[in-house]
Amino acid sequence: MKSFISFIWGLMFIVCAAVFSIQSIALDPDFYTTRYEQMELASDLNVSNQDLNDSIIVLLDYIQDNRQDMDITITRNGQAVEAFNTKEKTHMVDVKALYQNAITVGIVCFVFMIGILVYFFVKEKKLMISYLSKGMIQASICLGIVLLFFGMWIAYDFTGFWTWFHTVFFSNDLWLLDPRTDFMICMLPEIIFNQLVISIIIEFVLMVAIALAFSIYYQFKKAPIGFDRK
């Protein structure tokens, strides 16, 4: 039972690391503005750098519920226009809900982690780290299998992966934006999403790798032999 609980703790840690990685990278305006400058995207879209940067900030603020709308006027092709149309705004309602749900899951998992820590502190104070480190190793093995599968898929066919992701998490086809009419897909081309996913995975894997390295060290150097059979 204690081994199973420690495994759950490892899974909760992984979920929290994933949510944190998404939040720290996907919601960071600098991630996008830096790439806009490198790609000279504003020039390609016939907008100013300021309008392009302001547009992504509005979008990210809306996702984080820091504002209630996505209304912003930009100058494109010499004309003042609304940056986002009704279809784009409706799609972002779904994106915002998805993000808020992910944050909720992260918070719930963090609370469960604290609860498990309290449980082991009360029941097995001396063996607490032994159990938790073993659970982390077991959870990381499961994660490794999943990452291997998705990593190969992303490397081979990112477009296919990205399409699958949207069909799983969205119940409509509003995510199918048209670059001829929808500014959002122009300011967020596939290459940026590709770099975004890779950056999130790198940060996430690094966090898990640090926890895993400590867990392996502890299991081999510190954990009593047969502790999980007591």
TrEMBL record:
Keywords tagged on the record: Membrane, Transmembrane, Transmembrane helix
Name of one Pfam family that matches: Lit
Name the record gives this protein: TIGR01906 family membrane protein
Lineage, top ranks: Bacteria, Bacillati, Bacillota, Erysipelotrichia, Erysipelotrichales
Highest rank taxon of the organism: Bacteria
Record InterPro entries: Lit
Transmembrane segments: 7-26, 102-122, 134-156, 197-220
Annotated source species: Faecalitalea cylindroides
Keyword Cytoplasm applies: no
